[in-house]
Amino acid sequence: MWALLKSKKYIYNEDSLLYEEKVESGWSVTGRAALFVGTVAGFVVLYVWLFLSVFKLDPPKTAHLKKDLARWQTKMEILDSEIDRYEKRLSGIEERDEHVYRSIFGLDSIADDVKNAGFGGANRYAYLDEFGASGAVKSTVHRLDVLTKRAYIQTNALDEVSVVARQADEIKSCIPAVPPIMPKADSYRVSSPFGRRVDPIYRRVSFHEGVDFATKIGNPVYVTGDGVVERVKYQFFGYGNEIVVNHGFGYKTRYAHLNSICVTDGEKLVRGQKIGEVGNTGKSTGPHLHYEVIYKNKQVNPLSFMDLSMRVEEYASMIRNRSQTAD
Length: 327
Known about the structure:
The protein is an alpha+beta fold. Helix content is 41%, strand content 22%. Strand 4 and strand 5 (205-208) form a beta hairpin.
């Protein structure tokens, strides 16, 4: 550049009629050099200003980084959308498991502390800070962890339902689903239903936890589902002579105020098997059978589990068949 600026120049001398070399001062050369550099710098500044301010364009490296960022943001949005879809599907499975499958088979609900276990701690995702992960990335990783844990818990829950479902026939025979006495219309009456009532002895309102069948002393009492005798108790007060049968799957039944008992603790029973006879023992104002259905340690209405209009012939056939099975 300096060679260009310092190139020799000639001018025509009219007096000597010759071309003579024009001599320039150093300041003139320096000034032109400065003007040249300033002009170039101005064009550069103008270019940058037009590039950034007028046309709103990014430098190539910034544009490349922004393009990469947009691509990864799109991938994150797609991933979040997929997680939303899987969460919705898993929620539907959890809903059916809780309110359909587990209810049908008498299984306990999955405890909340089990569902939510393993996601505490403020530093659980601290390792992501080392990579400069954004809040969106941390949120997505957390959602994936929760989804994985929920899927694992639900898989185990459905495995449990599957095992019980394969025992469906057994469950069907264990549930207390028939009356505890022969349902012959003129041989009994429901003297006290399940629920609040005035106590016949203490004359105050109380909750009656079973159903009372008023009938003659000595009438046979039959177990209402397959099970095992959990307790046989003879007493003068309260329930009097009573039997508690554990049917499994959360079900138990109680037969109270009996006159006689013909089973023992730990004995296996089949539905329709005779276990005792109606009596008037314990806290009782007359001959009757006090019958309870207990589900998951809570008394429920026994009339919801039986059909008192069941034909006598059908009931008698059940007794014969079950008696033969027991033998």
